[in-house]
Amino acid sequence: MEYTVQKLGKLAGISTRTLRYYDQIGILKPARVSSSGYRIYGQAEVDRLQQILFYRELGVSLERIKEIVTDPSFDGAQALRQHREQLLDKRKQLDQLIANVEKTIAMHEGRITMTDKEKFEGFKQKLIDENEAKYGEEIREKYGDDAVNKSNAKLKNMTPEQYEELKRLEAEVKDTLAEAFKTGDPASDIAQKAADLHKRWLTYYWSEYSKEAHANLAQMYVDDERFKAYYDEKQPGLAEFLRDAVHIYTGMKK
Q1: Are 51 and 76 in contact, with CB atoms under 8 Å apart?
Q2: What is the pLDDT along the chain (254 residues), one digit of tens a residue?
């Protein structure tokens, strides 16, 4: 079956403007253009749009999605299996948060008591699961299962105060890095402050800190497309800037 822009947009629940933009950036081209100038989409395009929307739901940037779906080795069936696993992980996270909310309601109604630690368990587990789903394979390959398991355990055993400080520090890293990027100088005082904040943020996850590991992680932010997309989504070049700032901070600059 074939669809015009309007019909495909209605079928998928997205705007015609979005479909035209996907055509413009080369992520989803129509099968053909009719003699009247209408974009016409066939079954292959419908299937690709489904894949694109799956990736968008999982928070993948359009730039990265384009690289994935236009790769000659792209396997649609395998991608669907991966989507399924990631969606199951998301469902698990939601189930944990729902359970946490239900316990909190019961606490307010006087039916149970909750420790302060229990109040934050769902949020911490969600963070662990998200990190595992997005970066677990690469991190485990680079640092080993033991290091990653210790990091997850450290996060899970955080006190409420430590968890709140972690989230505050995470926001401060982002804000400081954004300001530092405007200088264009990774050796500037504010860029080095961002690198120091990044180190402090890492120590909430790592059982041991080393300059070499910090520098290697910053390099991975550039080498791994998913990390790079995360930092570069709002500001292209931010991953490289952070890498350079950290390499200067750790004395690993070549």
Answers
A1: yes
A2: 899 999 999 999 999 999 999 999 999 999 999 999 999 999 999 999 998 998 888 777 888 888 888 888 888 788 878 778 877 777 776 776 676 667 667 666 777 665 555 555 656 566 666 666 665 566 666 656 766 667 666 666 667 777 788 889 989 999 999 999 999 999 999 999 999 999 999 888 887 888 998 998 899 888 877 778 878 887 889 999 999 999 999 997 65
Of 158, 192, 207, the position where a domain reaches its end is 158
Q: Say yes or no: 230 and 147 in one domain.
A: no
Residues 24 and 88 in one domain: no
Is there a contact between 3 and 46 (Cβ–Cβ < 8 Å)? yes
Chain-centre distance for alpha carbon 212: 24
User: Are 172 and 252 contained in the same domain?
Assistant: yes
Q: Are residues 240 and 193 in the same domain?
A: yes
| Strand ranges in the chain using DSSP code E only, listed in sequence order | 3-4, 32-33, 39-41
The number of distinct structural domains making up the chain is 3
Residue 56 domain boundaries: 3-69
Q: Report the predicted TM-score, pTM, of the whole model to 2 decimal places.
A: 0.47
Structure token digits, residue 103:
């316990």
List beta partners, residue 39. 33
Q: Which of 51, 69, 87 is the last residue of a domain?
A: 69
Q: Which of 192, 235, 199 is nearest to 215 (CA)?
A: 199
How is residue 187 annotated by DSSP? T
Task: Look up residue 254 and give its DSSP letter.
Answer: -
SS3 state of residue 16: helix
CA distance 133 to 90: 9
Structure tokens at 71: 């790769």
